[in-house]
Amino acid sequence: MIRTTHINILDVEFIHTTRKQLINQTINHYGQKPIFLVTANPEIVMHAQESQHYNQILKSADYVIADGIGIIIASKILKKPLPERIPGIELMEDYLKYANQEQKSVYLLGAKEHVVEKAATKIKNKYPNLVLAGYHHGYIDINDSKIINQIQEAKPDFVFVALGYPKQEEWIYTHKEKLDKGIVMGVGGSFDIWAGEAKRAPKVWLKLNLEWLYRLVTNPTRIKRMVQLPKFLIHVLRGK
């Protein structure tokens, strides 16, 4: 793990940083070796509590980032407040902007076939100067060597993996050492948003840190996932 300041939340080490600082630091290092980023929310932390293997995967990451207001709340409960939430989709767009400016290459892995195709097209239309090194749908076996062989040949500067947790982190953990360089990052449902299959919350909801509530209101089936937040905060309070 790259040395920097961290905050331990239920045995997961979150980097203490702003989005701008994170971008600068990762871009300065990504050409030297592959960099593994995890955008973690309370669900991911709770899964790491339940799975020792997944916990070890998170420990192997170079950066674990606070993507989820619950993580920010927990850091305040522990009196070690993180400076800001860093949404994975916004970080991904920052990297795409950089790739466009510097003509860097990008590979997309994940989602349904038509979704990743639409996402790739829209990304390329918005950022015409980046190099689209390739893309593949997410219906794969983690140990399938075909995809990583394609990525090795393409030598992308950024690999965005949208397989959902824990599969996306497991895939990166399994294959990252086979890459010579690049920022490799799990991005959850970001391809669906890029493809227009899903929408982010309106700006006012984002500004109020209520994106989680917007998702619940617009998709009530998420209630099963949302129950992890109070469970997570109870664990934090007990640990404190």
Can you offer a commentary on this structure?
There is one protein chain. The model has no long low-confidence stretch (mean pLDDT 91). This protein has one domain (6-239). The longest helix has 15 residues, at 88-102. The strands form 2 sheets. Strands 4-3-8-7-5-6 form a 6-stranded parallel sheet, sandwiched between helices. Strands 1-2 form a two-stranded antiparallel sheet. Helix content is 50%, strand content 16%. Helix 2 crosses helix 3 and helix 2 (42-50) packs across helix 13. It contains 13 helices and 8 strands. The protein is an alpha/beta fold. It is globular and about 50 Å long. Keywords: Cell wall biogenesis/degradation, Glycosyltransferase, Teichoic acid biosynthesis, Transferase. It comes from Piscibacillus salipiscarius.
Structure characteristics:
240 residues, 13 helices
Model regions low in confidence, pLDDT < 50 over at least 5 residues = none
* Large-scale geometry: globular
Number of helices: 13
- Structural class by helix and strand composition: alpha/beta
Strand content: 15-25%
Task: Report mean pLDDT, rounded to a whole number.
Answer: 91
First-last Cα distance? 25 Å
